[in-house]
Specification:
The protein is mainly α. It is built from eight helices and no strands. Helices cover 49% and strands 0% of the residues.
Length: 144
């Protein structure tokens, strides 16, 4: 097993190659499987601006909140490399092995869900909640 270690954990200093705004931006964008053009469209910037941020040509990340929202990452992590990359309210089950919970859908890779935009995940959550509600109302005999 090969482990990838990044500074997405809470350390006081960067410990890997994601130690600038540009490298963190590129890391998060590729993790979310977005092109520069797709990210630019999602956050209302030009592809050139994203490219300049990634190469650290554009030093002031004034659009950090819009970019962080589009990538579904913590703005503090993106801007300064501090704290966790994943938003606190959206930590993956796999990130909390002590919880004893496991992924309930073996046919669906959790990364596919985390690669969706926040709006797409909200639609998925709403749809799943509605389906659960219907299934829970059915008698035990009908559930199988």
């Amino acid at each position: 097993m090969i482990a990838v270690i990044t500074n997405v954990f809470e350390f006081t200093r960067s410990i890997t190659i994601v130690n600038t705004f540009g490298t963190r931006l590129r890391y998060a964008r590729t993790l979310r499987q977005l092109t520069q053009k797709e990210l630019a469209r999602l956050c209302g910037l030009s592809q050139g601006a994203i490219g300049n941020y990634e190469t650290d040509s554009r030093r002031s990340p004034k659009d950090v909140f819009r970019i962080a929202e589009a990538l579904n990452v913590e703005a503090a992590w993106l801007a300064m490399g501090t704290g966790s990359m994943e938003p606190a309210t959206l930590r993956r089950i796999a990130d909390t092995p002590s919880s004893g919970a496991s992924w309930p859908f073996p046919g669906i890779d959790p990364e596919r869900i985390w690669a969706l935009s926040a709006q797409q995940r909200e639609i998925l959550e709403s749809t799943l909640a509605g389906m659960l509600s219907v299934l829970e109302k059915r008698s035990p005999d009908e559930r199988s």
